[in-house]
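Reviewer comment 2.1 asked that we show a complete input and output for one of the modelled complexes. We chose the iron/sulfur cluster case, as it is the one discussed in the main text.
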Amino acid sequence: MLQQTQVKTVLPYFKKFTKKFPTLKSLSKSNEKQILKMWEGLGYYRRARNLYACSNQLINLYKGKLPKTLDEIKKLPGIGDYTGSALLGLVYDQPRIALDGNVKRVLARNLNKKEAKIDFKKLINFNSKMLFNNKRNADFVEALMEFGALICRPKDPKCVVCCLKKTCKYFKSSKKIRTTSKKMFKNKNYDIFCFLNKKKKQIALTKKNDFGFLKNFNLPMIKESKENDTRSWKLLNNYNNSISNLKLNINLYYKFSNKIPSEYSWHSLENKKEFIPSFTKNIFRQISNLF
Ligand code: SF4
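Response of the prediction step:
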């Protein structure tokens, strides 16, 4: 849940989620629909799908136990180098560092270098004796991440109270290097076309879409704005929707029609039981004003 998401946003979701699924087994016995519903509003829904798939594989293939090697753990859905290292460090106390944005910043600042100019794996291997010379690697992994979040913060690091200030090159240097480059936002233009059933207050949606982050979720027709023929559609709104590092400029079109393409099916705008990503909810909110 914490990937790309702040702790304060995650906390209420985490509490609700772990109450509902207190064990790996209970999670694996659930279903994707239920899990997505609980994840609603948190975004990056692939995480929820992977978590569910992962719980199943752990129960069925590993008797509910986490594998102990990075190669094996990386075979699980959604687990890469970062999550794998974090798990092995936190769960099995292995000498590993989970290289998230916070940790990279701490290391880069100590060297007063740009992150892009550092080979972090090499750096950690080279300094492994110094880094892993305690018996509490799990705490060390956690502490490094927390240190980046609370002390060596992205903006306004707390150097005055920092225990590393005596050796930190960033603190000592008169020429402080900005460790990361600014996040670049990509602008994308999309046309969204909604078939609406006036009598039943319904919208036609399809899972057959390859709309990046919402691939295989129920969506109206979405096309990149190039030269779409919009003559038979009415423009409802033009708005922006930012997702991750994408700035979407959206033209929202609609038409009342009982005929829809075969891959589409009708959905109520008022269905509160089904999982609906906020991107789609935003469309629903605007459309509902038409009825
Ligand atoms: S002295 Fe400042 S820049 Fe250096 S590690 Fe501490 S908080 Fe970060």
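The radius of gyration is 24 Å. We note this here for comparison with the apo prediction described in Section 3.2.
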